[in-house]
Write a structure and sequence with these properties.
Number of helices: 4
Radius of gyration: 19 Å
Largest sheet: 8 strands, mixed
Number of strands: 10
CATH topology of one domain: Nuclear Transport Factor 2, Chain: A
Shape: globular
CATH class of one domain: Alpha Beta
Helix content: 10-25%
Length: 201
C-alpha cells in the first residue's frame, strides 16, 4: 500500500488553479507557449498582432522535444520527492549525484555536500512509509540549459499527520539543478527555503 502521493498543479493567468493529476498521469502545457484553448480556437489564433517589421522573424513555437525534456525534469523531480516521502534513501541516492550540494533549513545556512548529511534524516526521522504523506508541487517551471542540464523551481506543499493525529501542512520553496549523464538525470544541487523536509511533530 502506497501511503505517499504527489500532485502537480499549474497556475496561469486564465485559471486560478488548473486541475491537478496524479504523478503517474502528469501532463503539462509548455509554459513558454502560453496559449490556452477556448473550444477549437486558441488565444493565439484569435488575436493577431499588427504587421511585423520586415526584418523580424516570427517566434517559433516550442517543439515536442523541448516539451518532452521539460516533462522528464518534472517526472524525475516527482520521483525524488516520493523517495523522500517514503523514507527510501536507496532510491534517493540513485537520483542524486554523489557530490550533491545544497542549501536547506536543516543545514542552518551552510552549504552541504554529499549524501551523509541527508542520510541521517532518512535513517532517523523520515516516515519510512508508516504515516501518510501527501505532496503537491505548485506551478513547476523548468529552464532547459542545453541538452544535458536543466533547472526546476516550484512551491512544495506537504500534508501529514502530526504526533497528536492532527493534519498539518508545510510549505517550502525549492530550486533543483539537474544534469544528464549517460542518459540519466541526476540532481546536482538544490536550494530549499521555508519548511524542513522532516514533518514537525
Amino acid at each position: 500500500m502506497q501511503l505517499s502521493s504527489l500532485k502537480v498543479i499549474h497556475k496561469d493567468p486564465f485559471t486560478f488553479l488548473q486541475e491537478s493529476t496524479e504523478s503517474a498521469n502528469t501532463t503539462i502545457e509548455d509554459e513558454d507557449l502560453k496559449a490556452r484553448r477556448f473550444g477549437n480556437l486558441s488565444i493565439n489564433s484569435i488575436w493577431q498582432p499588427a504587421a511585423r517589421p520586415q526584418n523580424s522573424e516570427p517566434k517559433q513555437a516550442p517543439n515536442s522535444s523541448v516539451q518532452t525534456r521539460k516533462q522528464e525534469i518534472i517526472k524525475v523531480t516527482e520521483q525524488l520527492i516520493e523517495s523522500i516521502n517514503n523514507g527510501d534513501f536507496e532510491a534517493y541516492a540513485k537520483i542524486c549525484d554523489p557530490g550533491l550540494t545544497s542549501f536547506e533549513p536543516e543545514a542552518l545556512g551552510n552549504l552541504v555536500e554529499g549524501h551523509d548529511f541527508h542520510r541521517f534524516y532518512f535513517e532517523n526521522a523520515l516516515s519510512k512509509g508508516n504515516k501518510p504523506v501527501h505532496t503537491i508541487l505548485l506551478n513547476p517551471h523548468v529552464h532547459l540549459i542545453g541538452e544535458d542540464a536543466a533547472c526546476i523551481a516550484y512551491i512544495r506543499l506537504t500534508q501529514y499527520m502530526d504526533g497528536s493525529g492532527m493534519p498539518r501542512t508545510m510549505q517550502s520553496e525549492e530550486t533543483r539543478v539537474w544534469h544528464r549523464r549517460d542518459g540519466k538525470w541526476l540532481n546536482i544541487h538544490f536550494h530549499r527555503s521555508g519548511a524542513p523536509s522532516v514533518p514537525i511533530k
